[in-house]
Task: inverse folding
């Protein structure tokens, strides 16, 4: 039962943060950061399995591999941006977190350009000349 | 890949010890040594955290971005 381990780590690190907050507030930030990293490294294997399933389904459905890869990259960028934004917001830098989210959105849009182009080309091809 | 959750306990322990050293040195009137001890503890913890962040980014890259 991995979920029990993950929840226990969360509870223990919250207790440690509560203890340390009085004396050294900067160390609590590191504990929060490492807890996030540790929980992610617990679930990263399962995410890989899910992505293999998505790739398999895409191959079965004869979807172009570029599109599946793009979607996976978009999910990755969304996760990284979310992680960074949450960490910076926990550290009290709300404005930097907002900038990170903006950068994530723009990079996702850039990655989605080929897909959008393909959609528009398909629509144009449907219109009889 | 991180070994286990003991890193979190290590950081909490280092934090408590550094806070104690800081308080003792301050009571003794050595303000500058107290600041120095805090800084050293901070750097030690920072090394742990940087290793963790590097592992995390490697994992994210290998799973999300460069998968066939």
Result:
């Amino acid at each position: 039962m991995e979920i029990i381990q993950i929840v226990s780590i969360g509870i223990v690190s919250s207790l440690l943060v509560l203890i340390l907050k009085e004396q050294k507030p900067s160390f609590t930030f590191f504990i929060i950061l490492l807890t996030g990293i540790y929980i992610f490294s617990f679930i990263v294997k399962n995410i890989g399995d899910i992505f293999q399933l998505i790739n398999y389904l895409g191959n079965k459905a004869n979807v172009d591999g570029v599109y599946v890869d793009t979607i996976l990259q978009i999910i990755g960028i969304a996760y990284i941006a979310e992680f960074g934004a949450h960490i910076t917001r926990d550290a009290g830098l709300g404005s930097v977190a907002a900038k990170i989210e903006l950068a994530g959105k723009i990079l996702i849009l850039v990655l989605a350009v080929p897909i959008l182009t393909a959609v528009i080309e398909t629509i144009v091809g449907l219109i009889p000349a | 890949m991180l070994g286990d959750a003991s890193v979190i306990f290590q950081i909490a322990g280092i934090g408590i010890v550094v806070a104690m050293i800081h308080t003792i040195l301050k009571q003794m009137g050595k303000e500058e040594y107290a600041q120095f001890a805090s800084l050293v503890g901070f750097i030690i913890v920072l090394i742990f955290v940087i290793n963790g962040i590097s592992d995390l980014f490697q994992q994210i890259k290998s799973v999300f971005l460069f998968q066939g």
